[in-house]
Amino acid sequence: MSFYSAVLFVHIVGALTLFMALAIEWSSLRQMHRTGSSAQASLSIKMSSSLPPVNMASMLVVLLSGGYLASRMEAWRDPWIWAALAGMFSIGGIAVTLTRRRMEEIRRLCADENAELTKELIARLRDPVLLVSMRLRIAIALGIVFLMVTKPNLDGALLALGVAAVAGIFPTMFKQARYKEENIWARRV
User: Fold this and answer.
1) Whole-prediction pTM value?
2) Sequence-ordered list of residues with C-beta below 8 angstroms from that of 182, at least 6 positions apart, any chain
3) Counting beta carbons within 10 angstroms of the beta carbon of residue 57, is it exposed (0 to 12), middle (13 to 18) or buried (19 or more)?
4) Which of 21, 98, 132, 187 is the most exposed place for a label (fewest CB within 10 A)?
5) Tally of domains in the chain
6) Are 62 and 14 in contact (CB under 8 A)?
7) Which domain holds residue 184?
8) Is 2 within 8 Å of 21 (Cβ atoms)?
9) SS3 145
10) Could you say which DSSP state residue 75 is in?
11) To 5 degrees, how large is the angle CA 9–CA 145–CA 18?
12) What is the mean pLDDT of each run of 10 residues along the chain (189 residues)?
């Protein structure tokens, strides 16, 4: 096996690890949204608390191995590489700006598993921004995979990431509108 093949394998494993961590985080968010007690919320929080280091490590592996692969392929002048890099940094930025602070606050509120499930905690557990962040990061990651497979020009790369971002945000917007409608009908009954 050549060094290039080994790095390519590491790159793919890094990407798979990133998707695995995102899937576990999504599962944890879904559990938090449906929780009925502080103990259940705490369990979901514990499940997701080890994920940020895994996400960061896998992103670092993908970036470093991808940088090596791009150098070997002499692909640094290809616009899809730069779009993929921008997508990777946007995934990290979204996690830091939209998710981290909210999850830290939820962890603080769930520190005592026997604590009462307050309205504030329920609101934070069901914060729609957490779901938007999750879906957006997954969609952008899938958009990056699309870029790696198709290797489009700059317009195609930007379009692909734009479509991915819209695809990540749109279902959440639709769900929020439906949720508000259901609450309006529940109040009328």
Assistant:
1) 0.84
2) none
3) middle
4) 187
5) 1
6) yes
7) 3-188
8) no
9) helix
10) -
11) 65
12) 95 96 90 79 79 91 96 93 96 93 86 76 87 94 96 96 92 61 44
